[in-house]
Amino acid sequence: MFVRPLFTARKPLSQQQPMLKSAVRMIRTFKQEEQPRLRINSLAPNFTAQTTQGKLNFHDYLGDSWGVLFSHPADFTPVCTTELGAFAQLKPEFEKRNVKLIGLSAEEVDKHQKWIKDIEEISSLDKFAFPIVGDADREVAFLYDMVDEEGFKNLSKGVVATIRSVYVIDPAKKVRLIITYPASVGRNSSEVLRVIDALQKGDAKGVVTPINWQPGEDVIIPPTVSDADAKKKFGDFTTVKPYLRYTKA
User: Are 232 and 125 members of one domain?
Assistant: First the structure.
């Protein structure tokens, strides 16, 4: 039986490299025991990758800002197209909060550039203005533990539907929020903004926020703060239960 060789000596190295890269991808083995375990307050893993705005070091890109990293399994997918457009429309609101956006999709950057044209058209954007990481090798998806059990089995090949995570990262590079969505459910960009408002309010004032909290509404004094200290720090407050006290933010 004749077996066609993968490469021939007659091809120059420059033509062999894309094939070599593809071959390496096919044999990449991801092991669960080697995967980082991200939790709230874990240090956000750093990485360097090609993006739609050039090569980027993640921590350097964030600098002293907050960050939102959100991922997608593939380009030209319907739900993800609407999500990237929505985040791009809200970019000025994120900037007001000192937050940088960065997307990720498990395909090559060249394809991202073509996809961006559709995103701009569908969401009526003049210009899509934040980077999208090219993660065709799924290295960042692995680093950030983005997939479910079935997806992990396919991480080396094919589309993995659950590369659909959101990470809110603070200026100390700590992970403050992790949400992973199924393929069928679109994200809520306004909720990501609300969470950032709540986290920043809590960090600045030493408070926590109740269910469905929105900026301007009352906040909760943590039970670890005594009534006497709460009076000094917050002034007036309302006691509903000894452990549930509301005050103005």
Answer: no
Annotated catalytic residue 80: yes
Q: How confident is the model at residue 19 (pLDDT cuts 50, 70, 90)?
A: very low
Report pLDDT for 65: 98
Residue range of the domain that includes 212: 206-247
The token pair at 91 is 């970019």
- Asked if residue 212 and residue 162 are part of one domain, the reply reads no
In a domain, 166, yes or no: yes
Q: Is 163 contained in some domain? A: yes
pLDDT at 126 > cutoff 50:
yes
Beta strand pairing call for 99-105 and 132-134 = parallel
Q: Which position among 38, 44, 69, 80 bears the catalytic label? A: 80
Average pLDDT of the chain, as a whole number: 89
Q: What pLDDT shows up at residue 16?
A: 42
Looking at residues 87-96, what average pLDDT do you find? 98
pLDDT of 53: 98
Structural domain count of the chain:
2
